[in-house]
Amino acid sequence: MASLSVPGVEDPDETGLTAPVCRTVTRDGDVLLLVPGDCAAARAAAHAQDDDLTAVMEITDVAPVSVPHRIRGRAWLAGWLTPVRNGQRAEAALLLAERHPVGELLGLGEALHPDPAPGLYGRTAWMMLRLEVGEGAVDDLWGAGPVEPDDFAAAAPDPLVAHEAELLQHLAAAHGEQVRGLCSLLGERGRVCGAREKAVPVALDRFGLRVRFTDRGQRSFDARFDFPEPVRDVAELRRAMHTLFEAAAP
């Protein structure tokens, strides 16, 4: 989940927060956002013209499985917000559509065709914005710290990001006993969690799996199970998970 805010700008009857319909990152590390054209951020960006308009985007990472305390982390990006204009619109629309196939219903058709026939798309209800990142920060399961703009621009998406929700839900529904059995890999700590009733996979990336163990008293802790080496796709993930489960088997 993501929200965009412009400090000092808000509607009288609203919070001033804007939830982008979709977002993506350019090769240069700018964030492209598709937002409702009548939201506070869109109006502020349109009226700012060439003035610097500062904005903050907060991203909340929520586990796609049913567990208490589902928020896995938060990230903040602050920078300068501008509308995507003129010749940049087609390129930005293509990039957004590539990452999020929202299509012409969200106004991307007009961006792809700068001079559409009258009435072809009917309205301009959506606006594409660009956030040039000046600073960032993250607070998640691995710790808290700043993120430099160059590091943000150079970062590559995890190869499992598009599949994580489905994979975690599958592990929780179809492999609950095997996931619970991973506690045998925790040594002394595993002997404690062996009596715990519930084990739910809460995070998955190319480096490993994180599981939350919970006992009858609703006390819980997370344990990380690293893969022998980073996986590059779902096929390699299957092999890595089989290796984990085999190592934990009695």
Q: Explain this structure to me?
A:
- The chain has 8 helices and 10 strands.
- The protein is α+β, with helices and mostly antiparallel strands and 250 residues long.
- Strand 6 and strand 7 form a beta hairpin.
- The two termini are 40 Å apart.
- Residues 165-242 form the DUF2470 domain.
- InterPro entries: DUF2470 (IPR019595), Haem_oxidase_HugZ-like_sf (IPR037119).
- It holds the Pfam family DUF2470.
- It comes from Streptomyces nigrescens.
Task: Lay out the secondary structure.
Layout: E1 2-5, E2 22-25, E3 31-36, H1 40-48, E4 54-62, E5 71-83, H2 88-99, H3 108-112, E6 126-140, E7 143-147, H4 149-154, H5 164-174, H6 176-181, H7 188-193, E8 198-205, E9 208-214, E10 220-226, H8 234-248
Antiparallel strand pairs: 1-4, 2-3, 3-6, 4-5, 5-6, 6-7, 8-9, 9-10
Provide tags for this entry.
alpha+beta, 3-stranded antiparallel beta sheet, 250 residues, 7-stranded antiparallel beta sheet, 28% helix, elongated
Structural class: alpha+beta
- Average pLDDT across residues? 83
Put simply, the count of helices is 8
What spatial form do the alpha-carbon principal axes imply?
elongated
Over all CA atoms, what is the radius of gyration?
Answer: 22 Å
As residue ranges, the low-confidence spans are 104-108, 111-123
State the helicity in percent bands: 25-40%
Tally of strands: 10
Beta-strand fraction estimate: 25-35%
Question: Helix and strand string, N-terminal first?
Answer: EEEHEEHHEEHHHHEEEH
**Main beta sheet: strand number and arrangement?**
7 strands, antiparallel
Distance between the termini: 40 Å
Domain DUF2470: 165-242
Organism: Streptomyces nigrescens
Pfam families: DUF2470
Protein name: DUF2470 domain-containing protein
